[in-house]
Amino acid sequence: MRTTPRFRGIILFSILTAALVSAGAVFFYLTNKAGNVLEIRDSKSHKVFGKWPLEENGEFAIEFIHSVNMSPVRENFFIEGKKIRLLSVRFFSFGAGMQSDLEEGWTLEPDGDALVISGFTASWRELNYIVGTVSDHVLYINGETVSLRDLCGRNAHITLRVK
Questions:
Q1: Is the predicted pLDDT of residue 47 greater than 60, yes or no?
Q2: Most CB within 10 Å of its CB: which of 77, 85, 101, 163?
Q3: In angstroms, rounded to a whole number, what is the distance separating the alpha carbons of residues 128 and 74?
Q4: 107 contacts 117 by C-beta, under 8 angstroms
């Protein structure tokens, strides 16, 4: 059977259209696979400072120097649906403002020179921080280290939320 040039053009157009639609569907799936995005905004103006994709149960951490005992504290979180759940807190010394009593279900274990409290059940829709003026707050996410002071500015009031 012979085909006309016009018919061949229609077939070629149909094949290209199908290929582009398929490629678009694959791209959409791959770029939205994470489903959740951790977003950091200014708490007052709602200006978005940054967004990072996170899968369900994806983890991130915020680390800062405690203002009283002057040692690092790392709060580790994971995504649970559209909420943020505290996984553990790693710190080096007790003192004012540091958890010293364990609630039911919490555990305290050594980790080298540090201590780790875990077993938390609370989760939040958002977290609020005031970025350090003397010491930085650092976000660890997806293998990336982000200075929140560089990103948001000193003394910035920020909100972290899952979108």
A1: yes
A2: 77
A3: 15
A4: yes
Cα–chain center distance at 96: 28
38 CB neighbour count, 10 Å cutoff: 23
**């007790």: which residue's tokens?**
94
Residue 22: predicted pLDDT: 43
Element (H, E) at 41: strand 36-42
Q: What is the DSSP string of 88-153?
A: EEEES---TTS--SPPTT-EEEEETTEEEEE----EESEEEEE--SSS-EEEEETTEEEEHHHHH-
Radius of gyration of the chain (CA): 24
* 127-159 pLDDT per residue, tens: 999 999 889 999 999 999 999 999 999 999 999
- Tell me the pLDDT band of 93, cut-offs 50, 70 and 90: confident
Q: Give this prediction's pTM.
A: 0.74
- The amino acid at residue 142 is N
**Amino acid present at 34:** A
> Which residue has 């978005």 as its token pair?
48
Helix (H) or strand (E) holding 126: strand 126-130
Burial class, 114, CB count within 10 angstroms (exposed 0-12 / middle 13-18 / buried 19+): middle
Taking residue 79's Cβ as centre, other Cβ atoms within 10 Å add up to 22
